Amino acid sequence: MHNNIIRSKLTLMKSIERFFSYCSGASITLLKRCPIETSKYVGIGATIFFTGCLAALSSSYAMYFVFDSVVLPIAFGLVWGLMIFNLDRVIVLSMRKSELGGSEWLQALPRLMLAVLIALVISKPLELKIFEKEIATELMLMQQEIMMQNEKAVAIRYETQLDSLNNEKQMLASRLQEKFDKRDALLDLARQEADGTGGSGKVNPGPIYMIKKKNADLAQKELEDLIRISEQQGGDIDHQLSLLSVLKSKEISTLELADINGISFQLTALDRLGDKYTVVSLANWFIILLFIVLEVSPILVKVLSQRGPYDDLLEVHERQFEAYRKEKMSVIDNRLEELAVS
Questions:
Q1: Whole-model pTM over 0.90
Q2: CA neighbor of 168 nearest in space, from 222, 231, 237
Q3: What's the rounded Cα separation, in Å, for the pair 301 and 314?
Q4: I need a labelling partner for 41 at 20 to 30 A (CA). Which of 66, 143, 290, 338 fits?
Q5: Distances (CA, A) of 126 to 129, 166, 167, 278, 290
Q6: What is residue 95's three-state secondary structure?
Q7: Closest by alpha carbon to 238, among 156, 164, 166, 296?
Q8: Tens place of pLDDT for every residue, the chain, 342 residues?
Q9: Residue among 97, 79, 125, 112 at smallest CA distance from 40
Q10: What DSSP state is assigned to residue 97?
């Protein structure tokens, strides 16, 4: 019983090693001939596999905001994770160890740049999940700001009409005040003429007083007519002001809170948090750097590691195949020449 458990564990370990070796892009057949290299390629394969898993989780979370469901984001996440996994595997698989170390770095440079780009893409949705609570608070502030901007836009749209009506009301009041001042001045002149304190200086009212009294009465009549007209126009203006105020209040009350649950708003909120709080900005950069390290680590391991037995076997195998190909092509060319001569 104990031996069966040990055999099962060994079988499982061998299966895991074989799977991660496949993930690294290494040839299982050649790798069996140099077991000392197994650990290196198992480590490379595990890194590639878990990077693909992180890419699947990241894209699923990002697509959740797009489709607002569960099935489609999971399906898309699996496809995206497999694509990143395959891309990383192809990148590592296509690299060859050579005697010249500089050429390997030149060969790895575009692959490193691509790995950095992939890391930036897959890290962003996970950053949104990590800072989910902080982003939710910032989204509430953004929602309130958008609401205030919408209210301000509505107020500005009505402001011109309200200002115009208020100006008309002020002009009516100004004209009335001028008429009041003119009437009072004419009445004062008539009074001074009557009591002898002004004008001709005679105490008893005379013809001059009658003229001034007539002018004051005319000003009084004009004032009464203007008061009647102003009351009518002022009533109309007050009605329009009241109507516009009601319409303005009604339109503002019907404004709804903006739907800001999209990924673009989430990214904007994360960027605003980084601008506000240095800790968030630093944590954001550390997360990005972590994913960059995870993504480029298989390539760096492949470049920095010493040339081993597996690389020698792989080179021998490729040269044998190349020699076999040239031999077959030579045979085919000779047969074509013989056919052409005959």
A1: no
A2: 237
A3: 18
A4: 290
A5: 5, 56, 57, 19, 12
A6: coil
A7: 166
A8: 666 777 777 788 888 888 888 888 887 887 888 878 888 888 888 888 888 888 788 778 777 766 777 788 888 889 888 888 888 788 777 777 665 555 667 767 777 787 788 777 777 877 888 888 888 888 888 888 888 888 788 777 778 777 787 888 888 888 888 877 877 777 777 777 666 565 555 655 666 667 767 777 787 787 777 778 877 877 787 788 788 788 877 777 776 666 677 777 888 888 888 888 888 888 888 888 887 887 777 777 777 777 777 777 777 777 787 787 887 888 787 787 777 776
A9: 97
A10: -
Here the tokens at position 66 are: 């797009």
Amino acid identity for residue 155 in this structure: A
**Of residues 126, 121, 119, 42, the one with CA closest to residue 293:** 119
Which CA distances in Å does 322 have to 107, 229, 334? 22, 107, 18
Task: Please tell me the distance from the alpha carbon of residue 333 to that of residue 301, in angstroms, as a whole number.
Answer: 43
- Distance (Å, rounded) from C-alpha 98 to C-alpha 102? 9
Sequence-separated (6 or more) residues with CB below 8 Å from residue 303: 95, 104, 105, 108
Rg (C-alpha) for the chain, rounded Å, is: 45
> Token match 């989910």: residue?
132
